[in-house]
Structure formats: structure tokens, C-alpha cells
Amino acid sequence: STNKNTYISTREILLKYFDIVAIAEFGSGTFGKTGTNTVTLFLRRKEEDPAPAKQFKNRINDWFKNNRKKDEVFEDEHYIKQYCTHLEIDFTDYETLLKGEPKEKLLENEIFTQYKKEFDSWSIIKNYKKS
């Protein structure tokens, strides 16, 4: 849906160009009786435009292409490991996804079942499966 795409694009812009300093949530009556909670983001614009974001995107693409040649140069493998820790996923299991051959155990993880459910709900995927 258009709303969903707008939210995704907004998140991408926020993460690409800003550091999140704080998030505050206020009640639904903060700016009148709208029935909607108000959330305020306190942001700091990143000093470098999307250069770090481009670098991270390139590195992620490398990882999913199983190109680990630059891991020692950039010393950034810890980001994947922290991500796995955050998701409570075993790093060695996650590596199987990066290699294009994910273990069944990984695919049964709640986050991946949610991803698959969302992915399968996309009309482009439904149409592809029909053809």
C-alpha cells in the first residue's frame, strides 16, 4: 500500500541522514483530543551526508554475495554479530543465510517466519507464484 511505502521510505531517510538522540511518547490528548498518541523524535543531522549509509549498504551487499574479502580491511564483522545478538540468532546460523543456504532452524525463527509472511503477502510475489 502507499501508506506502507511512505513509512518505509521515511524510516530509510531518518536512518540514513540522522542520528536518533531520543524518542518521547506523549498521550493522545497532547495536541488536542485526537485519540492518537504523539511521538516526538529528537534527531541530529549526520555530519556526512549518506556516505556512511552508502558504505554500510555496500558492505551488506558484499556479505550477501558471500564476499568477505574486505572484512579485515573494514573490521566490521562485529556489526553482523551484534545484529544477530539483538535478534537472538546464532551467528553461525545467520552465516548460512548470507551464503544463500539458510538452515531450517534459522528459517523457523519467529522473525524469519514474519518476514516470509509479509513477503508472501506482496501482490508482486503472489502474481509471480501464479505464473
From TrEMBL:
Molecular functions per Gene Ontology: endonuclease activity
InterPro entries for the chain: SAM-dependent_MTases_sf (IPR029063)
Keywords: Endonuclease, Hydrolase, Nuclease
Protein name, UniProt field: Type I restriction endonuclease subunit M
Organism: Xanthomarina gelatinilytica
